[in-house]
Amino acid sequence: MNKILAKSLIDASEKRCICDLVIKNANVVDVYNKDSFLADVYVKDGYIVGFNGDRKASREYDANGRFLVPALIDAHCHIESSHLSPSEFSDAVVPNGTGTVIADPHEICNVTGLDGMRYMLKASENIPLSVFLMFPSCVPATPFEHAGAVLNAEDVEEFIHSERVLGLGEMMNYPGVAGADDAVLDKLSKAYENKKIIDGHVPSISGASLDSYVVADIKTDHECENADEAREKIRKGMYVMLRQGTACQNVLTNVKAVNAKNYMRFLFCTDDRQPQSITREGHVNYGVSLAIRDGLDPYIAISMATLNPSICYGLEDRGAIAPGKRADFFLTDDISKGLKADEVFLLGNLVAKGGKIIEKAEHVKAFNVSGRMDVKGFSIKSLELPLKTDKARAIEIIAGGVVTKEAIVSVNRDENGNWLYNDKEDVLKIAVIERHHGTGLSSVALIKGYGLKGGAVATSIAHDSHNIIVVGSNDDDMALAVNKLVSCGGGITMFKDGRELMTHPLEIAGLMTDSTLNEVTSCLDSMSRIAKIELQVSEDIDPFMTLSFMALPVIPKLKITDSGLFDVSSFCFVDISV
Amino acid sequence: MNKILAKSLIDASEKRCICDLVIKNANVVDVYNKDSFLADVYVKDGYIVGFNGDRKASREYDANGRFLVPALIDAHCHIESSHLSPSEFSDAVVPNGTGTVIADPHEICNVTGLDGMRYMLKASENIPLSVFLMFPSCVPATPFEHAGAVLNAEDVEEFIHSERVLGLGEMMNYPGVAGADDAVLDKLSKAYENKKIIDGHVPSISGASLDSYVVADIKTDHECENADEAREKIRKGMYVMLRQGTACQNVLTNVKAVNAKNYMRFLFCTDDRQPQSITREGHVNYGVSLAIRDGLDPYIAISMATLNPSICYGLEDRGAIAPGKRADFFLTDDISKGLKADEVFLLGNLVAKGGKIIEKAEHVKAFNVSGRMDVKGFSIKSLELPLKTDKARAIEIIAGGVVTKEAIVSVNRDENGNWLYNDKEDVLKIAVIERHHGTGLSSVALIKGYGLKGGAVATSIAHDSHNIIVVGSNDDDMALAVNKLVSCGGGITMFKDGRELMTHPLEIAGLMTDSTLNEVTSCLDSMSRIAKIELQVSEDIDPFMTLSFMALPVIPKLKITDSGLFDVSSFCFVDISV
């Protein structure tokens, strides 16, 4: 609030001036009392003035008794996972009723460092969606791979004072916190000193170990695996998020922890939602809908996606339909079976209707984050995999998740001991090529369960360091795929028999594009089809997302980085040959 | 939180150093899940480290399975109403389980201006009780009387940046807000600019009129008169306080508005609690106990006095028993029938046991706020009341509240037309004498229903301007009483037949004293007895508090100020003669 706005709102409320908009005959969802009431809702200068009272307004919109729901708040997401630039992301999620996201630009900062923060802030400044950022706390996410940047406590300083930076992003370094590492404490201190929030990330940590993390004032967690874990984290003062991402989902397990006594400590988030998931299912509203269909009171479910995050993150100007709050809301027929946004208003402007945006969001051309492909010394020779024995360790994909197993496989070798592809076995070569600093680093390993028969798939989305990852049956196609990504500035590509099958360019940091959600979804659908039909990638996995998680050395069991094959259980690199 | 503390707490949690205290075998009240759990609670450096985990501690305190409750937070109070200086107030309320108060030094600032803020901040700095202040928004409270100071928006500036000043105190000027008065908006803006809170005060305002007030981001109200009013204020985004003061009480009416869907929007407060009420009934715990005995779930009731105010006022370091929170809590046998604090710990120190403090709070000698008695030109002549007719308008006391009626009474007059006391009628003279700026202003009127037969009672507590108010049957005793207060720096005094019956000196601004709660209670008890027996003040009123409210020209119907008899309904001065 500020004086000019306050005066204008009071004057409008007192009928000394005319309102800009009235939503007539709305069944207003009251997230404070968890019920609804029929009213005309008056708006001035983008804010709600009040209810009824025979005020005048220059525009009228008749709700015809439909529900008016506060716009939803996504408490934690990585916009990069949508493959979309912030303006396109806005156009993608706003029609689902999302009004605000709290985004951790962890991915783009792993590639481009502080330039990523600057770009994400600027590109999300004047779009209908409110985007707040958390400064990524863990760049790089691991010392076992080379990311594009190292962000320290001093780097936080440039951004932490911004009103749009709410704090420090998910602190994934549990050992660093429990060990009271100086560098970690320095980052946390930036949040302490500026009275900002620290998001958490502590899967499966409980008991006294959880105390050592929460005691550092880490406020949220979105990694609960069951209701007991959620209740313990609530008990220790954390806000627990129900997450409905594409690969990682816990709404239906964690909603069992929600009850009449504790619902105010739960939030909803999407974390990582792929473009196809947004297109087919929706955004935060999808997670909320799942919870409602599972039996959660719709008013409580809505408050968990509106009022609760506004309180948790200090966003006092939103999260409810009440005088003085932003006129961010949507109309819908029914809330008892889920949430579908019909007309969406942000700051009192009709911005989406029937799932479509009214006007495209203002676009900011990417600056300092494009074409980040500093690959040196890569050649087809880099892909050779010399083995000492006929038995080898392979990453084994578990369909439907991001966790892998270790498989011991029998292999064929050529006269020099190099691995040879055997089309009778579902074992392929997988390689990671460092792309940020021209170090020339790359590593090659084996993967089981991907299904591909001939050809190669490569992507520059490879959590969390986002080097180039490539899988294939032969070095020629793999090298072509890698070189294609280098030349186009990143993305996803497929080659077979020396021929480019299709490419999805992600020119912004190799992670995102300026294409629309529909274009990206349609491209990825086509590519998935081609991957399944022409390359015979296993039916039960997502060909690209699966690949993107094979370089994430914080999730068990076996992963590959630019420095070798990594065993997450023992936290060390391991030999491929057994 | 800060880096040094975080490191120490983490180290203690991880057993790299020893804790200071463990409360063994506690039944810990979990305000997040609204239940309790048995645990050993470890404390280091005044903060809670965690539960169980085989840690070591240098001191042990066995709870023997009793409940461990977070220390209570009084969301709104005027310390001055206790008659006690901040250190004595701490000693008075801490044994009741109060750990934090949010105090509006409205009374002392009406007498001493910014010196009052400075004194209250300093005097409450190093005491066990945490005292946060709200900058008084309405000094003077009314233009119809002369207070000691006028505080403007610029005056807010010196204090608003303090961590211990949470915002702007109760905005009582509803017309000023709804009228968008520039001076009022300037004060509100100080809160907006510094992201601080604005407390409200809007009795009986509803509908579109309420919108015009809430729209200015005014966050709380403690004046609801019934459950419907509370629910509407909740619906419009306010936090509603259940108040158990001495004269004004609404816990039992407003608790009817609390339900499973909205309990997180309610707080408890004491507002104005007299010393005798604190002695006999307790402090915030008394209001909480009333609500529990009325059937409110004890865990919800406790959360309304702990977690909810911590969220509303951004006091994130307290309000729950969880890792990283202040070790402010108390032990009690039972929570099902009310809240009685047995042992109270603040910052992990045992500060009270069995209703008694362990060690007196550090006292700060009052500076710049003592002996504020600038009365000029007062004499017995000032008390003459010339009347034009034999019919006069009198203030009529309504027992048990602060509202009055207007009575038309028949009067006797002397040869000069001056009012004459008639011991057959319960009509007395009442006068207000300006004491802040030596203006020489005073006014005299009539009051019905006080009961006194011969003598005079005077006090320098006279809401909200706190001039001297005196009631009596004869000018001699009245003048003696006034002069006594002038000479002793303020307080409450009684005279009869030229003799001082008893005096309760309030040397700090004429409102507070450095005596203890017991001393003050005992003094007031004696004075009440004398007032009833020797002066025959009506049995059904409090002789002193009743008098203190007769000069408050914002509460109907007829009141007296230093400028004359004031009709609150018509908002203008009126003649005494009819």
Number of helices of chain A: 17
Report the strand count of chain A.
30
Strand content of chain A: 25-35%
User: What's the multimeric state?
Assistant: homodimer
Gap from first CA to last CA of chain A: 65 Å
What is the helix fraction of residues of chain A, given as a range? Answer: 25-40%
- Which of globular, elongated, flat, extended, rod-shaped describes the shape of chain A? elongated
What is the largest interface, and how many residues per chain? A-B, 65 and 65 residues
Radius of gyration of chain A: 25 Å
Low-confidence stretches of chain A: none
What does this structure look like?
The structure is a homodimer of 578-residue chains. Chain A is elongated. The first copy, chain A, is 26% helix and 27% strand. Chain A has 17 helices and 30 strands. The mean pLDDT of chain A is 97. The relative contact order of chain A is 0.13. In chain A, the strands form six sheets. In chain A, strands 1, 2, 3, 4, 5, 14, 15, 16 and 17 form a nine-stranded mixed β-sheet that branches. An eight-stranded mixed β-sheet of chain A has the order 19-18-23-22-25-24-26-27, sandwiched between helices. Chain A has a five-stranded parallel β-sheet with strand order 6-7-8-9-10. In chain A, helix 5 links the parallel strand 8 and strand 9 (165-171). In chain A, helix 3 (106-112) crosses helix 4 (114-123) and helix 5 packs parallel to helix 7. Chain A has 578 residues and is α/β, with parallel strands linked by helices.
